[in-house]
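Standup notes, protein team

Yesterday: finished cleaning the Caenorhabditis tropicalis set.
Today: Cytochrome P450 structure.
Blockers: none.

Input for Cytochrome P450:
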Amino acid sequence: MREKIGLSGPEPHWFFGNLKEIVERKEKLGYDDSNEWFNVLHKKYGDKFVIYFGAQMNIVLSDEEDIKEVFIKNFSNFSDRIVPPIFSENRLNSSLLQNRYENGWKHTRSAIAPIFSTGKMKAMHETIASKIDIFLEILKEKSEEIGGGGGGKWDIYEDFQGLTLDVIGKCAFAIDSNCQRDRNDVFYVNARKFISNIDIRHSKVISSSFILPELGWLWRMMYKYTELAAAEIPLVEGLSDV
């Protein structure tokens, strides 16, 4: 199909498309290197190439004018996001993460635009700064604990996660979470579970729903039995109580 529109790309698997290669790369490296991989593919196939999620064709762009065409000039024709059928049962389906309804993003953007005004951003500055102060205190404490001239080190990734969730929790949801100090904080635990289980590496059901969207009725029925649903329910209920 891609040849008919004059495009090329990495050779897809007959059933999985390029999804198989994407998952294998993530498992081998331990992280998502899509940006680096796409740069390699752009050098090989040009500023436009095709990858497949199952039988679904996706065009990846890097040319500035093409990107402007999609995101600005003809945005109304490109506002949908790729959402596998299984997520129609997801209670966060109407959120910024997965807004997929007709004109949904247009309405959402109109609603959230005032949040990012200069006045609102200034109002959030103090909150963000207070969370960063805690982050810096934690870094100082840990460096003193494992330092002592012995060349100790630790993985800072979880500390950044805690900072990010504390800022999002307070600024977006008015939640006074303690993700940086308390790894058992409900918001921290459930948010991490949700993000982890939305990864196609960790859910055969989600990856299968990408490959066979025609079986949407089956994936929607199975959703409530997935680890993603188990993580989502307490997270959404906690936000609803705010």
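Follow-up from PR in the comments: The radius of gyration is 21 Å.
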